[in-house]
Amino acid sequence: MSKIQYSNDGNIKHLLTIEGLQEELIYKIFDLAESFLNVGNREIKNVPLLRGKTICNLFFENSTRTRTTFEIAAKRLSADVINLDIDSSSQSKGESIFDTVDNLISMGADIFVVRHPEPGMPELLAKHVGGNAHIINAGDGNHAHPTQGLLDTFTIKKYKNRFDNLSVAIIGDIKHSRVARSEIHALTTLGVPDIRLIGPTDLMPTDMSKINLKIFESMDDGLKNVDVIMMLRIQKERMIGAIIPEEGEYSEKYGLRKKHLLLAKKDAIVMHPGPMNRGIEIDSDVADGQQSVILSQVTFGIAIRMAVMSMLIGKNI
Ligand code: CP
Fold first, then answer.
1. Residue whose CB lies within 8 A of the most ligand 1 atoms, among 58, 64, 179, 233, for a mutation test
2. Average pLDDT, whole number, for the chain?
3. Are 119 and 143 in contact (CB under 8 A)?
4. Burial of residue 178 (number of CB atoms within 10 Å: 0-12, 13-18, 19+)
5. Which domains does the chain have, with CATH numbers?
6. What are the binding positions for L-aspartate in this chain (predicted)?
7. Do 125 and 112 contact (CB within 8 A), yes or no?
8. Residues tagged in the binding site annotation
């Protein structure tokens, strides 16, 4: 099965990855998101687009932003939302995720938003459910986090208007980051000519050699004249068997400080997908500073997730 499955109307059936997603579809999601941006500013913050539909959040890993913004997005589309509490569900009695999903489909679930530590689990679920439901990958191991990649590039578009003249630096633990992978695929498809990865050699990806990426070990070299600075945290939970860098030393070499902003373009934006470790990969005065768009990323995430869910169901505003 190709990772991208299309419905008869040319829209996608499931959102499992950004890899292979056509530029035209990404822009369609951006246009839809743009049309949803204002819903959050209305007195009554919803539209009836997904009334009668049921969205199930299945989070097998912790989350603040993704889970909550998917729930808000679904409610803004007037859908019913189920947040399955995995710890108190029958998963704890040995039920398989496939049986859980089958049961929820029998209860009328239309879309499953799935976060899982195992790379590829959303794809397996998409194969399993066939045409009976839609699957959205909300992060699977170090593989992909497609809505994060979409909301990040949407944020870049909002601040920079275009992609074909940008230099984007992604800094930190790229090897273990599903966000970085989705981000790199989205930036590449959207035509960003200069994508830089900055970090220790041990934390560089080994699976992206086909993509034109510039690798830097030094912040001072990699940040020169960039338009976008995207910080990542060290993902210790995925560093099984790897050498975890010593925090103080890592922060000294790869923590973003005010002085680094002077290397980038004057109007460079600072991004972080969250959760942030203040004082480690980013100083508070940068995270909360004028160039930071970190909280805009979260707000735009709601519109992007509304766009993705309504596209899967085949509804446009
Ligand atoms: N960016 C992101 O995925 O954050 P959460 O883990 O809080 O969902």
1. 64
2. 94
3. yes
4. buried
5. 3-144+298-313 (3.40.50.1370), 146-293 (3.40.50.1370)
6. 93, 178, 233
7. yes
8. 65-66, 93, 115, 145, 148, 178, 233, 274-275
